[in-house]
Amino acid sequence: MFVELREVSKRFGSFEAARKVGFSLAKGTLAALLGPSGSGKTTILRMIAGLEAPDAGDILVDGQSVLGLAPTRRGIGFVFQNYALFRYMTVFENIAFGLRAQKRPKAEVRDRVAELLALIGLEELGGRFPAQLSGGQKQRVAFARALAPRPRILLLDEPFAAIDAKVRRELRSWLRRMIGHLGITSLFVTHDQSEAIEVADRIIVTNGGRVEQAGEPIELYRSPATPFVARFIGESTVLSGYGGLRGFEGAPEGASCAIRPEFVRLFAPGEPVQFENSVQEGLVEGLAFRGDALEVTVTVGGFSLATGYSLERPPLSPGQAVKVLIYRLYAFDGDRAVLVGNRLLANGGGGYNFQI
Questions:
Q1: Is 348 a residue whose pLDDT tops 60?
Q2: Would you tell me the crossing angle of helices 165-182 and 135-147 to the nearest 10 degrees?
Q3: Total-model pTM
Q4: Per the count of CB atoms within 10 A, which of 130, 197, 218, 307 is most buried?
Q5: What is the CATH number of the domain that holds 247?
Q6: By residue range, what is the domain housing residue 69?
């Protein structure tokens, strides 16, 4: 593995920011550190960069520990959340800063900056100052500045946080293309799961200073290992005491679970009902238009669940009675999340196999 963390820990006073953190990244991987505020993401990133020193554990790059190396000798490019561009330097000078600090020849600096300006699509803006740029342009300049000295690893701290939603979506695609083109091992911090799922090859989910689960986006979505990951990845409704739901009777008293919208199907009045023995009565609470579908909130078994509903199907209205089928759910068993199917489907659902 090209980057490896081995039981890395870090405290700030009584606060444990990282607890025996361990994960590895293959060369050329674009990975995301994903978690809520205070989960340890930025601390982990800063320890890899050498901006913070771990209290225990080791950090290896290409098989060698970097703990004894200063940040400038680790071969790491860092893109800060607020860009950290020098206000009184032009775009050209900002990108050239690291190269000039390394005392590279003037011709090499000129050629490298020109190459990077072309890469980020800002060839005509080299003479402008940061105040004359949009948020998206500033982020591209920060990206180019980090790449200028040809680092082995690129680290990005919430790279899209300071940018409006439309530009953020464009930059996500742009960043993925650029990093794929360059083949540089990259790790970015985010609290936005859609951002991580869209951009990253691999996601490391953090919570309370530790790694909950690491894997490919589809793996984390389909097979969350812990209750936290089941709640945090995707859109889920968490229920306590779900044994009254049809097909899930017999669950331990007070047991909790998470139900995703795609695990629930509604049948409007007059529609043929599949798996009649597996459905139960529900009541439409509310409807929200989501462009290509409706988001429906339905009360069933004393719980409120959300699900999608095609605009091509019979119309629904608040207060309307419907039939509700819950295909499956993630049951919480201690510190594990276990996928449980509706037992009535298994025992007479006509061989139906629901897949995400």
A1: no
A2: 20
A3: 0.89
A4: 307
A5: 2.40.50.100
A6: 3-225
